[in-house]
Amino acid sequence: MKDKQPKAESHLQVETDLKALTEVLEWLENIVLPLLPEELWWQCRLIINEGFTNAVRHAHHNLPPATPIDLEVKVFCCYLEIRIWDRGQPFDLEAKLRSIMQEQRDPLDREGERGLVFMHKLTDELHYVRIDDCRNCLVMRKNLT
To answer: Is 1 inside any structural domain?
Structure first.
């Protein structure tokens, strides 16, 4: 059974700009660092870095820089959940991950898709879904126990 009430939660909205990554990482650090062991903090930092960077570089690559990216983090007793909403075209994350993993070479050798592999390997649940308001939501869940 999943926890009902988060121990901490926060929402952040930034523009489509890789320079906003510093703000995103500081925001995440202020919320989760006091609640997590150092190794889990490092993993959460990496997955949000990759998720945000993908939203800027891929989902929003043809959109104006003022297009917002929304982020949310919730820390529960047994898990942490990070959500990143973008306004790009739909993307089949599961099919892309299957394709990467079926290739004959090490997926980490491919610079362009390395972030997806990191997110896949460092999370316990990873989903990318289209929601009713024509945004996409990347959901990354990391167990804490």
So the answer is: no
